[in-house]
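Need a sequence for this fold. Nothing fancy.
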């Protein structure tokens, strides 16, 4: 499930989702006349594009289908919050709410408030909301019961509570399947949540928890001689960005689909964040954003080429069709944390490219180390958890 920000092309599907959810889910608690007034036959009784653009609208997407959306206004008001009729009790609402609360904390909003239906009351109560009052509201000639509920976030704003560590390391882990259980048990003991991917080619993870828990995990992993040189990056979050721990076994750490590529043996030239601006300012350098198209829409480096790929495994085809004539030219690549560039640079070297460079530590390390006034980054950086995006400045 992907949680992302609203895009204008989502309007029609959001209108339909709203209509179907009210008509087929809320009918449990309201009369046929009430739900028809609430969700009229005209799907466009409101300007959905305008409504969604004027607030922080988060969309839940699964296999290309929109399965939920939720809106947060700058004053802390949660407006629409609906999950697809066929995806009730599947965790969609939980993921959307986590995104809403994370954005509220980023904006230093101290109070969230919402008018919820009878149907949604239990959900919000379970997220710490209290009922302020029950009320009757008029809607196209019908009276509907709903509840004004609120939640104060002051305690969460007092300090940064969670450390979010991101790391990857290419190494030969022939016993990666056997590593899964002890790593899972270790993380559970230290109350860590997030994702750890294990493959024969190495480890890749974004994990969150207390300072003590993160430090303990890193020490535990580095005690393995194969992971001794594992490097990590850190950000901080006021709310836990994951709701559970997942330690998964993979054929590849990031799906690339080309056999024989081994970043532990050969990769492009690393470029430290402090030297990146100089490199990409060179007009003879081709700068390529190796991320997926929906990530690029949040932000990218000035002048970077967007390959317009939906999945990373499409990158080799892009190289073949667009760069094969430029094998003598300098190529500079970047991605979120660096792992995709490791594979991409190893692949391009294998294809005969002479000068391949990539940003060490990725965008996240660049944003953490390069002062905002010197940064060539434009926009925000998409991340694969409930924070959705991090600011395009020091984090």
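Here you go.
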């Amino acid at each position: 499930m992907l949680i992302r920000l609203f895009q204008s092309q989502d309007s029609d599907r959001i209108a339909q989702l709203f209509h179907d959810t009210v008509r087929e889910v809320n009918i449990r608690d309201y009369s046929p006349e009430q739900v028809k007034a609430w969700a009229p036959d005209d799907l466009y009784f409101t300007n959905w594009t305008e409504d969604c653009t004027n607030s922080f609208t988060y969309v839940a997407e699964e296999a290309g289908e929109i399965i939920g959306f939720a809106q947060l206004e700058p004053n802390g008001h949660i407006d629409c919050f609906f999950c697809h009729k066929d995806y009730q009790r599947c965790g969609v609402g939980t993921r959307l709410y986590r995104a809403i609360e994370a954005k509220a904390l980023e904006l230093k909003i101290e109070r969230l408030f919402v008018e919820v239906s009878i149907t949604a009351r239990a959900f919000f109560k379970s997220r710490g909301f209290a009922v302020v009052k029950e009320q009757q509201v008029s809607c196209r000639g019908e009276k509907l019961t709903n509840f004004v509920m609120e939640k104060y976030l002051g305690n969460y704003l007092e300090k940064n509570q969670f450390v979010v560590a991101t790391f990857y390391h290419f190494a030969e882990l022939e016993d990666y399947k056997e590593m899964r259980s002890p790593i899972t048990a270790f993380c559970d003991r230290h109350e860590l949540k997030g994702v750890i991917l294990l493959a024969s080619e190495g480890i890749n993870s974004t994990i969150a928890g207390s300072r003590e828990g993160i430090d303990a995990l890193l020490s535990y992993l580095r005690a393995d001689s194969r992971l001794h040189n594992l490097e990590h990056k850190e950000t901080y979050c006021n709310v836990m960005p994951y709701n559970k721990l997942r330690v998964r076994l993979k054929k590849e750490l990031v799906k690339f689909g080309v056999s024989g590529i081994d970043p532990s043996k050969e990769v492009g030239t690393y470029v430290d964040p402090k030297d990146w601006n100089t490199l990409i300012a060179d007009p003879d350098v081709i700068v390529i954003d190796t991320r997926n198209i929906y990530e690029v829409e949040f932000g990218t480096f000035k002048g970077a080429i967007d390959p317009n790929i939906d999945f990373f495994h499409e990158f080799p085809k892009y190289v073949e069709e667009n760069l094969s004539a430029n094998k003598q030219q300098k190529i500079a690549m970047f991605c979120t944390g660096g792992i995709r560039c490791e594979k991409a640079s190893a692949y391009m070297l294998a294809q005969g490219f002479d000068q391949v460079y990539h940003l060490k530590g990725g965008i996240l390390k660049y944003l953490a180390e390069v002062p905002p006034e010197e940064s060539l980054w434009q926009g925000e950086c998409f991340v694969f958890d409930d924070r959705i995006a991090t600011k395009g400045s020091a984090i």
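For context: The CA atoms of residues 328 and 354 lie 6 Å apart.
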